Amino acid sequence: MYNILLTDDEQIVVDSLSMILSKxxxxxxxxxxxSSGAKALEIARSGxxxxxxxxxxxxxxxxxETISLIKQINPNIAIIILSAYxxxxxxxxxxxxxAFKYLTKPVNRNLIVQTARDAMNLVDSERGKLTDSIxxxxxxxxxxxxxxxxxxxxxxxxxxxxxxxxxxxYFGIEGLPYFFACIEISGLxxxxxxxxxxxxxxxxxxxxxxxxxxxxxxxxxxxxxISQKESQEELINEIYTLLATRISCKIKIAASECESDIKKxxxxxxxxxxxxxxxxxxxxxxxxxxxxxxxxxxxxxDSVCEKIFARLxxxxxxxxxxxxxxxxxxxxxxxxxxxxGQMDKIKGRLFESLVKERSAATAANQNYKDEESAGExxxxxxxxxxxxxKKYFSEKSVECASAAAMTKSGEENPIVQKARQYxxxxxKDLPSLEGLAENLGVSPFYLSKLFKEQTGETYINYVTSAxxxxxxxxxxxxxxxxxxxxxxxxxxxxxxxxKLFRQKYGETPSEYRxxxxxxGDDE
Length: 523
What we know:
Layout: E1 2-7, H1 11-24, E2 29-34, H2 37-45, E3 51-55, H3 63-73, E4 78-83, H4 88-96, E5 101-104, H5 109-157, H6 164-171, E6 178-186, H7 193-207, E7 211-216, E8 219-225, H8 232-246, E9 250-255, H9 265-276, E10 284-287, H10 299-318, H11 321-338, H12 343-364, H13 376-382, H14 386-409, H15 414-425, H16 433-440, H17 444-455, H18 459-477, H19 482-488, H20 494-505, H21 509-522
Parallel strand pairs: 1-2, 1-3, 3-4, 4-5, 9-10
Antiparallel strand pairs: 6-8, 6-9, 7-8
Helix pairs in contact: 1-5, 2-3, 5-9, 7-8, 8-12, 10-11, 10-12, 10-14, 11-14, 12-14, 16-17, 18-21
């Protein structure tokens, strides 16, 4: 199938070309049309166009300008010029821009058919080259993956009898030092292993040239060349962050110290594997030789951060949202104080901590799913404001704790419980959803989602029902006039209140009061 775009500001020309091509290539082509260069460019940008018939003189962007831009989008599109001007400079410029043929109007029907057929042959040829190229890349990828896995396997299990220089030459890796990393993906279903493996390779290759092994159990070994000027810690943390945004499993990454002797590759791998065992179950990163001790520069502060986060994680696991909010704020303050000015590290720690909290919440409540987590990395990338980061981190921590609390109590989510209590006590001056969410320490999106899940109603509908139910009770009492009741449940507009009341109960407040008080008299 060939997609052909007909571009001419005269509709009769488009119709004629359409008729000729449809008759001679029935079932082989799909036709598109444009009356201007701008429209032709828009269609070409959408992709899939193989052949273009183009007039030179059109209003606005002319044919030659359009050709130039289309060729930048897709150099393989076959462009056939149709022009009433038989001038050498036009033809020469069109061909220089990459046009396939230059035909002058009026054009013989047979010439159009033959030119279209030649263009199709050209398209087939380019498709063949592209297919061959894709197949070659796929074959090389398979071979390269096998060689990389063999290299990692040799490093881990057969270090003494391997000539690593041949491997390094094959991979195009020159010089050392290097380090080994172990990546562990927990709880991965068998039918997801290949997809996750491809994602891991994509992330690693986007950062640097490294050698990636295949899964050995739930682990993957990676050989990282690194220069003396590079930060091993920043590289590992960035890879962890990228993987956490793509893979919804617990992720651990541990790295050995840097080595300069390739014969120590096996020891380096074992060092990374040993460090992996020291990472908490929730996931995270660890680098041998980077652990700080109390008394070293920065060690005391880092220890304080870790102790606060341990309390935060405990609060999340126990479902204590109040304590989680307090610890989250303390943790943020501690990070900003100990890593003053190192914004990338601060945001990296916050992101990594949220991944661990989410894992803890999921372990307690398998139904928990943070639908906003996909945008988390984007949020941390776009802001450096301390209070904004602190607010976001605290909200997420409270959400994780409340999710864990749902299964521990077997009752309604504590956030929804508090929201109901607050609504019942503040019907007259109730804030918006955003205001209530801020009061409870969660995001508006999460509160809205919880309300719908737990009550079966949206926040607005729930509030309306609560207000009208209270109005019914007050109307039945008879102590207040309707205007006072309307204002007392949050409706300063009495007409609007009456309209809502009638929609819900099928009668006006006056009618309901008369009926309710009448019943009371009878009784």
